[in-house]
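Hypothesis: this fold can be encoded by more than one sequence.
Test: take the structure tokens below, design a sequence, compare later.
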């Protein structure tokens, strides 16, 4: 599960980089940032929940 989250974080970072490099794709930059933050939060919550057991 954490491997999947790590993969998603990498994919979202690629989206951010492409959004920065290609000036017409500013929406991709914002989408990548939002998805990166959401995925990080979900990963953090799941990691915390697994550690409490």
């Amino acid at each position: 599960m954490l491997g999947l989250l790590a993969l998603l974080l990498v994919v979202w970072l690629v989206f951010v980089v492409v959004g920065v490099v290609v000036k017409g794709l500013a929406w991709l930059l914002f989408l990548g940032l939002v998805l990166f933050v959401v995925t990080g939060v979900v990963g953090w919550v799941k990691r915390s929940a697994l550690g409490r057991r």
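The two ends are 16 Å apart (CA to CA). The chain has a mean pLDDT of 80.
Hypothesis status: open.
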